[in-house]
Amino acid sequence: MRNNAIYRLDTQADLEHAVKKLARRDPRLRPILAQTGMPQLRRRPAGLPGLAAIVVGQQLSIASASAIWSRLEIAFDPFHHDALLRSRADRLARLGLSAAKIKTLKHIAQEIADKRLDLDALANADADEAHRILTSLHGVGPWTADIYLLFCLGHGDAWPAGDLAVQEAMRIGLDLPSRPTAKEMNPLAEDWRPFRGVAAHLWWAYYKVARKRDGAPVPESRASAGSIPPTPNTRPTRLTPSSRARPEPVSDPVPTATAHRTTNARRRPQT
Fold first, then answer.
1. d(CA 63, CA 242)
2. Could you tell me the fold of the domain covering 47-152?
3. The model's pTM
4. Using one digit for the tens of pLDDT, what is the confidence trace for 141-157?
């Protein structure tokens, strides 16, 4: 059953509360949590700087994306849409941006300047509606939209269906015959509404356990007091048939207080 309430992940406590609730309701997630320990909250600034940083990182290694974004932050301080619109394309290219990303960033800046886009207001929109608004922007695909909603706005139901690390973690953890496609990921996560973004945090943590490297596109925030420490393990275990029972629907609210590191060789998925 779909619940249209919006759940925010603003603090580590928000994330922990929701993870525990998911694990109680979905028995498939209990052995995953037992191996990962409580995942850590991942956040980055919202607004144009947050979305621009994600656009810059499309299809790039962590090292390349970080280097380009550092140059942009120095060149545009503060990173404001008016300054971006005034900047010549050749100057942006010298900072490391491709022609396609220059076009995308200038389009987003123009939409903000014309007051057709309010990135901060998306925090109060339904995840699917916010996703629709973002993907209507030139150069912003599903992955970019969901990463912004989840990490910049703390939208607890944003679901990064196109993220390769989440797909691979679910293949291993749920003992699927193959890595699910982005289209197949949506029905797999339907029972986790309105906490699909919470589940994504858990699957990124499991990917790190299973593959011995971080696959999330945003680094962990500093761990907060009270977090459950990861359970030591040598090999991620697959679920037994009995633990793959259909989860109970997640419909009751979480009373929140407010609610990437990949290797340099790993590239991000499509936009």
1. 42
2. Endonuclease III; domain 1 (1.10.340)
3. 0.78
4. 999 999 999 999 999 99
